[in-house]
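FW: tagging you since you asked about this chain on Friday. Here's the raw sequence from the shared folder, copied in full. Didn't touch anything.
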Amino acid sequence: MKTIKFTMICFFSLLLVSCQKTPSNTEQKTGTLKISFKNLIKGAPMQISTGAYTNGFGEQYNITKFKYYISHVVLGGLSATSSNDSYYLIDETNAASLSFSFDAPVNTYSTVSFLLGVDSTRNVSGAQTGALDPLNDMFWTWNSGYIMAKMEGVSPQSTVVNNKVEYHIGGFAGANSVLKTINLSIPPSLPVLTVNIREAKTSEITINADFDKWWQGTFNLKIANNPAVTTPGALAKSISDNYRTMFSIAEIKNY
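HL: got it, structure written out here
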């Protein structure tokens, strides 16, 4: 009888051990990736309202608003955001918005890419929250779509009332979609050439965004001819073809 009891105790003990969760060795380890944006004009820090600038056509202007959406960050060909639902509104008037952080898989990377704008699914998903909240003044309620990038200012060359300059660039479908996938590689001239994501450590990518690229590229954007663009269409598409080139990696830090 004692032998039977001992056998049963051993059996249930083994069963209990086998049912306990064994830690997985396949769980992806992560570190922290911080991305910071510096908005510039001809290489110098952008100054909201107080800066006096001249574009390549000799037209004078200043800037009172400058915003754009960043989403779907990919690091070295691998999704770097915790989910594909990460959207960030970069707003030059809000210093806290100029950088954001998230978990990324432990590895070494030399490229980063992201969507400049808000994907088509979110454009037709109705009122949302966070960076996509319509209260951020980046949503056309009349057009059911997001403004992907916005610049407002003043120029003596503008024929609009009060010499306003307004570029609200949007449109997510068809031939005139302004959505842009931005692919960036670390320049060989930088002292640090890789992003080394390590467990419980932070790496930072600083990205420059030079607004001067808006004026010239595949399209010549002259204030005298087009002081305001506030609807989707071919003109908005042409401006987006210019500004897609404004980004470059300026610095890498592995802390």
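FW: The mean pLDDT is 89.
HL: agreed, and The helical segments are 2-19, 120-123, 234-243.
FW: great, closing this out.
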